[in-house]
Amino acid sequence: xxxxxxxxxxxxxxxxxxxxxxxxxxxxxxxxxxxxxxxxxxxxxxxxxxxxxxxxxxxxxxxxxxxxxxxxxxxxxxxxxxxxxxxxxxxxxxxxxxxxxxxxxxxxxxxxxxxxxxxxxxxxxxxxxxxxxxxxxxxxxxxxxxxxxxxxxxxxxxxxxxxxxxxxxxxxxxxxxxxxxxxxxxxxxxxxxxxxxxxxxxxxxxxxxxxxxxxxxxxxxxxxxxxxxxxxxxxxxxxxxxxxxxxxxxxxxxxxxxxxxxxxxxxxxxxxxxxxxxxxxxxxxxxxxxxxxxxxxxxxxxxxxxxxxxxxxxxxxxxxxxxxxxxxxxxxxxxxxxxxxxxxxxxxxxxxxxxxxxxxxxxxxxxxxxxxxxxx
Length: 376
Description:
It is a single chain. This protein is of the alpha+beta class and about 375 residues long. The protein folds into 3 domains: about 1-120, DNA Polymerase III, Chain A, domain 2; about 135-240, DNA Polymerase III, Chain A, domain 2; about 255-370, Proliferating Cell Nuclear Antigen (Box). Helices cover about 20% and strands about 40% of the residues. The chain has helices at about 5-20, 80-85, 140-150, 205-210, 265-280, 330-335, and strands at about 1-5, 30-40, 40-45, 50-60, 65-70, 70-75, 90-95, 100-105, 110-115, 135, 165-170, 170-180, 180-190, 200-205, 220-225, 230-235, 235-240, 260-265, 290-295, 295-305, 305-310, 315-320, 325, 345-350, 355-360, 365-370. A 9-stranded antiparallel beta sheet has the order 14-11-12-13-26-25-24-18-22. The model has no long low-confidence stretch (mean pLDDT about 95). It holds the Pfam family DNA_pol3_beta.
């Protein structure tokens, strides 16, 4: 195996694949990066058994300046190899497999030799057919992920809640996440009617990594298999394992009616919560209090050791009963950031029941729900 490549183009592909490579794993070969070189280009693969990423650097890509002298394949120690490539002095680099699985990397006056492994020892990626697939705009998928993954659980005691529940049926895409203290739900209407419905739970960690790769992509094809999901991002394939089990029925958690509704600008409310939480973070229970009465709404934060803060809020529309409710400000900040600079309607039933945040326009498409904190 021997090839010469533009280092900048090669590093870009290395960065994508490295997202899937774990520094520690029970399968030693997975700490490596798999390279397969043929007459069409270089295929790079990284995996930690939960996430697998495969991308191709094509011989037709002029920016890559790829010259293949001899095809072949090898697994190289990812951490060392990527660090070496990034530190090489010249614009071009040459990689050549010499005796056994030793690999020589040269660039300018620098030369490295590192030990590799047989590529046949690397696990094969699953083949997922396009029979159960949906195509989405990359911007839409990135938005769905950012608006729901904030509510996944970090507790491994309930593994099913560490993922986002994706439901696809006919022409609707529904994504839901909850950690039992808060919930995020996003609906998207699909342009094409699906041939078959699908119901999968994708780990939040996988979706976070996927979202980072959607910057310069226009559309994403999502293919679903029995225990894997594949996202096709142009020349890059992103595989993730699926979580096994039944996701809880979250529809019953969302209140159908409310006794008090208040409309705020999400950005203005976020700024006020940020200020109130400066002191609440110093207290053990980390809560802020929202009070609503005929004169308007105010937010208060209190820390016995430091002091207290009180701020009147800018209310756009208000209706219903008086209310005093306490909640975790960090949950509220995560929810408000997901809306951006728009007006939102916050709906309450009682001081101890979950409350919802929805956009004033197209409210059915996006719901954030937060469980209040009992302070007495």
